[in-house]
Predict the 3D structure of the following.
Amino acid sequence: MAAATGLIDAAEATHNPSALFYALFAYGFAFGDADRTGALEAARRGLVIAQDSGNRETESELAGALSRLEAEYGDPLAAFDYFTLAIGNYPDAGNVTLFRGALATPLIAATNPEISTAVAHLRDVLGDQTCESLARRGESMSPAAMATYAYGQIDQARAELNVVSQ
């Protein structure tokens, strides 16, 4: 948080959209728990800048961060939209490496500890053997199969959330 303080003002002074995008991204990431509204606003603003600049990689990074912030502090349905955007952009741009990251690899789990908590809960509920079997099945999927599966799970979760909220 200390490193992100003042970063947005400094980036704005450069008139460089990329610098501003990353400053907004850093603020959203660093202040997610301390300044929920500010973090969401910064991340949303950063996404618009990334989209306006045509940089789909940075758009995807911020969409992924926004999906987490919205799920935790904002609109859960918007979280699905941002996650869908991130999933779609990576393979469309030919970036299979970061696409796998968007789908909860160990790197993403290190920066999003709730993933590790969810996996531990799944292991408790399903058992180690079932979890390992499912993990092996996921590892063997092609990026297109992963995206199709993820989109289906998002649609199912969105439908369930819509029923609960009505």
